[in-house]
Design goal:
Chain A is an alpha+beta fold and 587 residues long. Chain A has 15 helices and 30 strands. The longest helix of chain A has 21 residues, at 165-185. The mean pLDDT of chain A is 94.
Chain lengths: 587, 587
């Protein structure tokens, strides 16, 4: 410790919101170089190397072969698949001295596809899975939480190449199983959830989430075993309701009711239900105007109709509309569309099917708005609403959309019971890409009959630096980090306390003997640092075993304790090395 | 080999000029992704990992601690040291989504300086040496020779921090010694030459060159032990010559003599020497007009005066004028300076000291142009030259410059004999930076008296990917690569030939048993590939030992040979594993 390039900090960094960020900086593992861009100090690099080693071993065990692609790549392959545009401002773009376009790769589907196309030509060459552990770039709008959402980060990305769907399924399962082994070995709790493919394209994907209250991903699970990212939750569609005997729609004056809350109150006061119940927000149809930006920069307005008791979940909405990005429509856009009367929008004035205007604003409905459902909704005039408006009779949508928030208690789509919501950190994501990239880039091989067939692909990512952060989130207490033994920067933290030369000599002997037996030791040999500071540092750094050589030495004992336990064991000086070695072997 | 992601090529890639590039691509070690940007295939990555491991081990043995910096860095630190501008078009620059300036780091002096400033504050913290093995970027004007001059490449860069010059010298020597061990362990011949500091700044630097005819660096050495990069060669300055009895300068008509050759011929024909010898080019003073571009974009003309038998060496010139870049002046520039009469420029019309014009073109002299030397040179008018123009009497320079080419036979500056010239690949470069970066960025620590002192630094680089290329340059023959054992992608290449199942079974047994003994085996188990193709691939790939299981098996023998030898040894089947293992242990 007297030589190690590390300085622990007593104060939390000002920009640190989450424990992993706070503690990794305070304990001298990482250091901020720019927003979302970090430098790895010696202790951090040791942990990172251990995480990488586990990932690499399990990739190789799963039959994947390691390669390494550049981070700086030419535009053309990404142009061919449309991702140069689709990534929008998330992509770091630059020009070289000859004014040629380059990018810093956020992921490498294109390059792997082209490499395999370059080298392979026959079904006999497949299946093939390649991987790399590589530095990636993403110009996040809001880099946050330290390593959890960074702009330069380390990923393991793997890609599988198969001749048919069956092969892809097998390659996918092999990676899935490798991921389970990786996170198990790392001691990181995980949940596998169904996910949407997002910008990656493809047919099927699952995320590995590390449950954590600070996670950016919300996921749902049911007691019956269903689990999905909220973006992937499919709303069960209710049966249509007969509406032959439904009353006709009728417009009512509803002064001062631009919000759902005011509307419900007004309706209960002035137009009570006939069945004795109260109107609730769920009886209203809310119409939300959204402005989409397509990858080519073009803009489009859409209106989403959903039950008034649910908010639009922007992440679900964007997953449904990807690669377009969405935001609530602004005043300017309302001005351009006088038919959209803010606070009083109703389906009868919007939607191509309803208005007959082929160029009009699209109207997309929540799946719950099935034919026969009756709604109180805007009448497209200030202070007016329409009652008993029946879906399928009085209006239709131009399509449905999964945009409404998912709530605890909602039914699982597979009927396995009510959903509960939790948050998680995305630590892995596996995709069945199918033929999207192979088609765009012309990756074909000869099949057994000598016919050219397009290869089918999978892509599989582990956020290596994010995994390290997730480990820190899952393993800390108020005093600092509490690393699982296999990723800790050392096995044992030997602390010499006091000023007595005999103490330092004994501590050094313990450290040296443990090292000789293959135990990784961090030895705090700092001569003029108080015991209190040394203990605080040991707790902050989070090495799993702490050996204190100090006052007890006069009585022939050395203290051994586990970082996560309050128990202190006094071990005879001559036994301490064997004792500690045994504890380490049992890790 | 039937599973390995590799395809060997029979044809040289069209853009490959040098053996390492040609063979690394043909043998499936690397693949071009863009100009100067390469992808590492599994075999290449194995070799790279071995080179990196040696570098890392020797850095740690030398007391350096490993860290890892981002490649994507903000502009500000590089602005503070002036390198944002100095790097000119060699720097990859980009903007993030907030329009902030970033760069892809070509080297990390600034970041290391700031990190140490951030964490350390006392002389007690020093000495400190940090290193990283990291991907670096340089937008080369002419990326060439594969990995030798790339735009994305791997470097080991280390930085030392000391309180005083003595400490810096010790840190420098420790790195220098580590470099010697690294290249010795890698089996790579090297020469250490004195070098100039270039854009890095600082006081002293040495390069490690791997001698190679395709090297980009020319260096000199004398039998007496002097060695230097040509840029660093200091011309021995002759003694001044008394000129009291020298004849007065006289202008002569020399029609049609714009070149040195035509001038010498004319002078010998029309104005013969009085001592019976012939005039030679060495008697003429050539004045070369150069256009400099300074880092801030401003331009400047300078005239360099040197003996007519020597050319200007642009690399030496640029090293003398760094960070300015130079090129021969163009017609436009001559037009703006009518006093510069092309082909007939003489010192009397150029130079601030000669003309008295403080804003005029600077005139820089070769160190050989000492007072008393007499010259035939331009008279600043077409078809006119001046004879017996004496330096120090008739003209002076505004300074001297090391710009003339160095030639074989020139005297070594330290008097250790005539120089010979050779070419080398720069594989390492060590610098005593001194206080340049620490001053620019304010890195000070308290000294033993409690006074703030500026830290002195060194920087030390190994081009890791370039070392791999240098190894390939130094280790190949007409058939392919011939790796030194310690960096080869495997120790043994087992080849099964023919179609006999017994052969494949025996070969697999040998491969498996060798692997079990810790020998790294590449096993060519391809079922339908001819022996000729397999042998050619084995020679191309360059694994040091080749074991052929084939026809001999019927007679109970297996062939063992070294890649670089024509000798074939027939070993009894039961002995082959032990025999090969012994050879591998002896590597």
């Amino acid at each position: 410790m007297s030589q190690l390039f590390v300085r622990t900090l007593r104060e939390d960094p000002a920009d640190a919101e989450v424990a992993s960020h706070r503690l990794l900086v305070r304990a001298g593992y990482i250091r901020r170089a720019a927003p979302g861009i970090y430098t790895w100090l010696p202790l951090g690099l040791r942990v990172l190397a251990k995480v990488e080693a586990v990932v690499r071993e399990e990739m190789i065990a799963a039959g994947a072969q390691e390669v390494h692609f550049p981070a700086l790549l030419p535009r053309e392959p990404y142009e061919a698949t449309g991702r140069w545009a689709e990534y929008g401002p998330n992509l770091f773009r630059l020009k070289d001295r000859k004014d040629a376009d380059y990018l810093l790769a956020p992921t490498h589907e294109e390059m792997f596809t082209l490499l395999v196309k370059d080298l392979y030509s026959s079904y006999k060459d497949l299946p093939l899975t390649l991987f790399q552990i590589q530095t990636k770039y993403r110009d996040e709008a809001r880099p946050r939480a330290g390593l959890i959402r960074g702009r330069e980060f380390v990923m393991k990305d793997a890609y599988s190449f198969d001749i048919d769907d069956e092969g892809l399924e097998a390659s996918y399962q092999a990676q899935r199983a490798a991921y389970e082994r990786i996170f198990t070995r790392l001691g990181l709790e995980y949940v596998i959830v169904a996910a949407t493919a997002g910008a990656m394209g493809g047919s099927r994907s699952e995320e590995f989430l590390s449950p954590s209250p600070i996670g950016e991903d919300t996921f749902v699970r049911s007691a019956g075993g269903y689990a999905a990212n909220v973006e992937a939750v499919v709303t069960p569609v209710p049966d249509a309701i007969p509406f032959d005997d439904a009353p006709a729609a009728h417009v009512e004056d509803t002064p001062g009711t631009p919000t759902i809350e005011s509307l419900v109150a007004f309706a209960n006061a002035n137009h009570p239900r006939t069945d004795g119940r109260e109107w609730t927000a769920a009886d209203t149809l809310k119409n939300v105007v959204l402005s989409l930006t397509h990858p080519d920069g073009s803009k489009e307005l859409v209106v989403v109709g959903l039950p008034g008791d649910r908010e639009v979940d922007m992440k679900r909405l964007e997953a449904s509309l990807a690669p377009a990005e969405a935001e609530p429509a602004g005043e300017d856009e309302f001005k351009k569309h006088p038919e959209l009367v803010k606070g009083y929008i109703g389906p009868q004035a919007v939607g191509r099917a309803n208005t007959g205007d082929e160029e009009g604003v699209r109207y997309l409905l929540d799946p719950r708005v099935v034919p026969g459902t009756r709604w109180i909704t805007g009448a497209n005039a200030v202070d007016k609403h329409v009652f008993d408006l029946v879906a399928g009779r009085d209006f239709v949508g131009d399509g449905t959309i999964e945009a409404a928030e998912v709530r605890a208690g909602d039914p699982a789509p597979d009927g396995s019971g009510p959903l509960e919501l939790a948050r998680g950190i995305e630590i892995g994501h596996i995709f069945q890409l199918g033929r999207k990239y192979a088609e765009s880039l012309g990756l074909k091989v000869l099949d057994v009959n000598g016919k050219q067939v397009t290869v089918t692909m999978g892509s599989y990512g582990v956020g290596v630096t994010r995994v390290l952060a997730a480990l820190a989130e899952a393993n800390h207490d108020d005093s600092g980090l509490t690393w699982p033994a296999h990723v800790a920067p050392a096995h044992v933290h030997v602390v010499a306390t006091g000023k007595d030369a005999a103490v330092f000599a004994a501590a050094e002997k313990v450290a040296t003997e443990l090292s000789a037996r293959g135990v990784e030791v961090l030895y705090d040999d700092r001569p003029k640092v108080s015991p209190g500071v040394k203990f605080a540092d040991a707790e902050l750094l989070g090495v799993p075993l702490i050996v204190v050589v100090g006052r007890g030495l006069a009585d022939g004992v050395i203290e051994v304790r586990e970082r996560t336990s309050t128990e202190r064991v006094q071990v005879a000086v001559d036994d301490v090395v064997a004792h500690v070695e045994e504890l380490v072997r049992a890790f």
